[in-house]
Each structure stands twice: as structure tokens, then as C-alpha cells.
Design goal:
368 residues; mainly alpha; Growth Hormone, Chain: A; 14 helices
């Protein structure tokens, strides 16, 4: 009887505590849903997608594994590299699909393409499958690299459609995260995989896709119209991205001048993640502080393919293809991006060759 009495008192006390905590839990749940469904959180999700969507920028790290595992010469490796560049820079497929499909489907297609392409490359260089033909390797890396364009299209185009009044600033921030995604990936790779560059290919296969799947429903077209963002919050994001870039630069320089243990690489990657998630604090603050949703601005008129659009207005696909400005931009990108791609693809091998040359010079001097 005593045990029954004690049990009844415990149940009664638990019910009272739950009734007392119910309003607090309800308020916390409401605030959490408000943050997750807000426009600031959508921008933060786009930042993370851009930061992890840099598989093409780390090709120089694992290209030596492709060359040694598959017995490729430099000319064959250059062929594989060409198809990697072709896949990562041809965005017309994702752009056309984006015209008729929601951003969530674009992210899902990109996740599937990335997983297939880089997983097959990982199986090939670790001898888990039969040695693929050259055309198969070119296909794998082209499909895997093309998945970048799906993530970029989903995040960039969605933000432009949602925030047309601030599209220049938002695009600049997103492109900035694209610029540092290779450095972010390198720090995560050193912390997770150590110096095993073959495992980097496996990391490329799953990590960006996990991020895309997590934010599958977050990156979306806002139902309540276009929004005008506050510049002070956008500048806060800018300062945080600059701090992240400065931290990455300092850590890369230090890691090249000093020998890091695995624990130190983990600590370095932890700092990267903290700075990468720092904008989330601003997102939570702004969403909680905002009592009412931002007032919608005048809706952007859908482009009319039969009439001529002025500069600054939205263009249809056909208008864009036959537009002189688009032709100029296309040629400028071809000429400007080529040098950057050549540097990204060959810098690792050139630096490794230079390092070997410097190490051999003292030995040759001592022999003579």
C-alpha cells in the first residue's frame, strides 16, 4: 500500500510539472518553427549549401590517386580533368529543370548525381570494382561535378526570386561562400580523413548531399511574396563570412609551416564549423525579434517571351539565349574562368613537383 501511495504522488507531481511546463514548451516550439520557416533561415541554409558544394575545387588533392590507382599518364588525367570542368560549368540542365520544378527537386537530383558520380570514382580508385574504362571515368566525374550546378541553381535562383530588391547583395554573399568552399572542404577532410586523400572522394560523395537533403524543404519560394531584407543583417553576414575567410587563410598558412597532429586538425575544423554556424545566431535573433512578417514588395512581373525586356527586368529562356548582353557575359566567363580553372586543377601537382625539386637539390649538392 505504501508503494502504491508513493507511486500515485509521483504521478500527481509529474502531471503538475507537465501542466506548468506546457505553456513554456508550446512557446519554445512556436519560436523554433518560426525560425525554421523564416526567410533568414532560408538564407542561412543557402550559405551552408554553398559552403559544402565545392567538390570541383579540391580535385587537385585526389587527382594523384586517380592517376596512380588507374595507371593514368598525365594526358589521360587531363582528359578526366576536362570532363570534370565540363560537368561543373554546364548549368543549362539544372537551369531548364528549375523553370518547371521546385527547388527541392533540384536539390534532390543534384544529391543523387553527386552520390552516383563520386561513389563510383571511390570504388574505382580503391579497387572495389573492376577497373573502369576511360569513358566511364569521364562519365562518373562529369555527372558528379555537374551536381554542383544543381545546388548552386537551387540556392542562387531561389534567393533571387524571393529577394529581388536585395539580389545583388545576396548573390554576392552566396558567391563568396562558393569561393571558400574548397578551403572549408579541405579543413573538414584533414579532420575526418587525415591524409587519406582517397577517403576525400567518399567524403565528397556523402557530405554535400546530406546538407542538401537536410535543407530540402527549407530552400523554397516564399508563399507570402517577395521580401526586402534589412541591410544591417546582410552586412552582419558579410562580416562573419570575412572572418571565416580570414580564419581559413591563417590556418592554411600555419598548417603549411608547422606539422599538425590529427587532434590539431580536428580543433582547426571545429573553429571552421563554429564560424560557419555563427550566422545562425543572427538568424535566431532576427526571427525572434521580428513580431510580424516583413511586408511584401511589389511582385515581380513574369517575363513575356513575346516582348522585349529592358535591362534589369526578368528574361525568359529564349530572350536570354538571343540577348547580346548574355553573349558578352558568356564570352567573358569563358575567357576569365579558364585561367582560374587551370590554376585550381594544376596548382597541387606543380607545388608537389616544386617541393620534390627543393628536396633533391641538397642531396645532389652533397653527392657532388
Amino acid at each position: 500500500m505504501l508503494l502504491v501511495f508513493v507511486f500515485a504522488k509521483v504521478v500527481q507531481f509529474s502531471d503538475q510539472r507537465l501542466q506548468t511546463m506546457a505553456p513554456a514548451l508550446s512557446a519554445l516550439t512556436s519560436a523554433l518553427l518560426k525560425v525554421l520557416q523564416g526567410h533568414w533561415f532560408m538564407i542561412f541554409a543557402s550559405f551552408l549549401i554553398m559552403s559544402t558544394n565545392g567538390s570541383g575545387n579540391v580535385f587537385a588533392i585526389y587527382s594523384k590517386d586517380i592517376k596512380s590507382s588507374l595507371n593514368y599518364n598525365q594526358q589521360t588525367l587531363n582528359t578526366v580533368r576536362f570532363f570534370k570542368n565540363l560537368g561543373s560549368n554546364v548549368g543549362i540542365i539544372s537551369g531548364l529543370i528549375n523553370e518547371v520544378a521546385p527547388p527541392s527537386l533540384i536539390l534532390l537530383i543534384g544529391a543523387a548525381a553527386n552520390l552516383f558520380g563520386y561513389l563510383m570514382i571511390y570504388f574505382a580508385i580503391t579497387n572495389r570494382t573492376a577497373r573502369p574504362h576511360l569513358w566511364q571515368m569521364c562519365l562518373y566525374i562529369a555527372v558528379g561535378a555537374n551536381s554542383q550546378s544543381f545546388g548552386n541553381t537551387a540556392a542562387l535562383v531561389t534567393c533571387v526570386k524571393n529577394f529581388p530588391e536585395n539580389r545583388g547583395i545576396v548573390l554576392g554573399l552566396l558567391k563568396g561562400f562558393i569561393g571558400i568552399n574548397g578551403a572549408v572542404f579541405t579543413q573538414l577532410y584533414l579532420a575526418i580523413c587525415g591524409n587519406d586523400s582517397k577517403s576525400l572522394v567518399l567524403l565528397i560523395a556523402w557530405l554535400p548531399r546530406i546538407v542538401c537533403i537536410i535543407f530540402l524543404q527549407t530552400v523554397r519560394i516564399l508563399k507570402d511574396g517577395h521580401r526586402k531584407l534589412e541591410l544591417r543583417v546582410l552586412f552582419s553576414f558579410l562580416y562573419m563570412s570575412l572572418a571565416l575567410a580570414a580564419y581559413l587563410m591563417i590556418m592554411i598558412i600555419v598548417q603549411k609551416r608547422a606539422a599538425f597532429s590529427h587532434t590539431e586538425y580536428v580543433a582547426s575544423a571545429t573553429g571552421v564549423l563554429l564560424l560557419l554556424f555563427l550566422p545562425l545566431l543572427v538568424v535566431i535573433r532576427e526571427e525572434i525579434k521580428q513580431k510580424e512578417p516583413l511586408p511584401p514588395i511589389s511582385s515581380v512581373q513574369e517575363p513575356n517571351s513575346s516582348s522585349k525586356s529592358e535591362r534589369g527586368e526578368d528574361y525568359s529562356i529564349l530572350q536570354t539565349i538571343f540577348n547580346v548582353d548574355m553573349t558578352v557575359l558568356f564570352m567573358a566567363m569563358i575567357c576569365g574562368a579558364g585561367g582560374a580553372l587551370a590554376a585550381i586543377n594544376n596548382m597541387g601537382q606543380r607545388l608537389a613537383s616544386r617541393w620534390l625539386t627543393l628536396r633533391r637539390e641538397p642531396a645532389n649538392s652533397s653527392l657532388s
